[in-house]
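Technical annex B. To support the medicinal chemistry partners, we prepared a structural model of the target in complex with zinc ion, based solely on the information shown next.
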Amino acid sequence: MELTFLGTGAGLPSKERNVSAIALSLLQEINHIWLFDCGEATQHQILRTTIKPRKINKIFITHLHGDHIFGLPGLLSSRSFQGGDELLTVYGPSGIKEYIETSLRLSCSHLSYPLSIVEIDEGLIIDEEKFQVYAKKLDHVIPSYGFRIIEKDKIGELLVQSLIDIGVMPGPIYQQIKENNVVQTEDGKVLYQKDFIGPSKKGRIISILGDTRYQEGHREFIENSNLLVHEATFEQDKANLATDYYHSTTTQAATIAKIGNVDQLVLTHISSRYQDEDTTRLLDEACEVFPNTSIATDFYQLSVELKA
Amino acid sequence: MELTFLGTGAGLPSKERNVSAIALSLLQEINHIWLFDCGEATQHQILRTTIKPRKINKIFITHLHGDHIFGLPGLLSSRSFQGGDELLTVYGPSGIKEYIETSLRLSCSHLSYPLSIVEIDEGLIIDEEKFQVYAKKLDHVIPSYGFRIIEKDKIGELLVQSLIDIGVMPGPIYQQIKENNVVQTEDGKVLYQKDFIGPSKKGRIISILGDTRYQEGHREFIENSNLLVHEATFEQDKANLATDYYHSTTTQAATIAKIGNVDQLVLTHISSRYQDEDTTRLLDEACEVFPNTSIATDFYQLSVELKA
Ligand SMILES: [Zn+2]
Ligand SMILES: [Zn+2]
């Protein structure tokens, strides 16, 4: 699980930061990439990475503000010319379907792949073999969602030595033990999986929130995430502005990370009023509350590793 | 009158060429800038120029393909945050109104300036003090327009020496002669403007065509332009592809420039199949037919001067 921040600015593109988009690479896990938000020129940013648009099979839209969706029609159209033929599903708030369908219809864009558009509500929105995704409504001027991506726990390793010790030698039976609770060997031994499988590996949890005010009520949703991606449009001094415009400050984002007991926090959606030289200050504010914080820049990448 | 090519590629953005947009600076003439097409990330390209979005007061859309319109909602929204408060008018084919209005409504974008959207037909679409614009339907898979921008002829210079010779000295009367066909001086002299104004200066003509197949019938529309901007998606060898996809070749664009007796031709909308090293070949093909040709690259600028 590897994140690439494709756009880390707020509202408008600037020379330093494009508008919102984050790619979550699940290539190792399921051979796909998921995209979170798709501001204008996201496809242009992707051109500067190794990401293949045809590998993107899910796009999650946090909310319908232009800086989060205006790159969608272009990316969807271009994917047709980049070898895309697999199903792509877009998840987003009510209105996303009309936006995409109107844009594609009026521009006479014909897609080479099936497109599914799911208008979401709160709760479990995806439950697949390896991943679950939950959505939660945040506190923004228009409906804005957060996503909690949960990797399902992985079965532990086969305790090969224990099997050999009781005379069960390597062969197809080993795979059967991994896949069934109880197995009988050819010579009649009954083997319970739990006796021959080590402790399961805890799956990873990544929480990516859309634009939002600070709300203590978000704690439970992001709790114990390995990684929290949170907006920090303003510095703490501008907390009033943040409240007025339904955004968060550095300190507020760090606070939710702390009370939510997450491992790591990445701040994004930084106002264009802040220049490169201001980011140390913004980072310091957050780290005072939650030390394991970083501020994303465009093309910033980080891996979220399985815990030992 | 100065053109800046903001995007010169066809269909998809590439690292070398963005999708279509051309800015026509009329800052000296009317203190405004006109934009022709607005592919995705046009506002990003503008960030790399000296163009002020609030100076753009007219946007002409040749046709509704995504590579010509997907930057429109973002540019319109951002202009609100860049000091835009003057009326902006968008001219384009039927459907442009629904596209813009749906995008702005669903993204909850509130503009700080009045926006007028005019769905055009063929003929005279603008007739203002200094400029006229005509539109013509071309030959593309969907309705695609060309625009002929005509600067009205400028009144010649006042023949100051002739006035002095007959005893009319510099003063407010000079301005009156410029503005009226007949003027009477305080001491009763009747002066006819035609006797005291030099030859009028021929206004400039720029023709900018949208995506189109070659059609000899376009000759009249672009005739005698100081500058013709024409698409050349393909090399001459690919004339069949050009016909199939409703586009033009280098040689075809040069042919219409030649038979239309224009002064200068600029080719744009170059397929991403052509790399930098291919452009000499493309240019040679065109120059064989029409020597005064250039191929636009992103950020290419050229001035169209008044003729002496
Ligand atoms: Zn935003
Ligand atoms: Zn085109």
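Notes passed to the chemistry partners:
Chain A touches chain B through 34 residues (CB under 8 Å).
Residues 160-196 of chain A form one domain.
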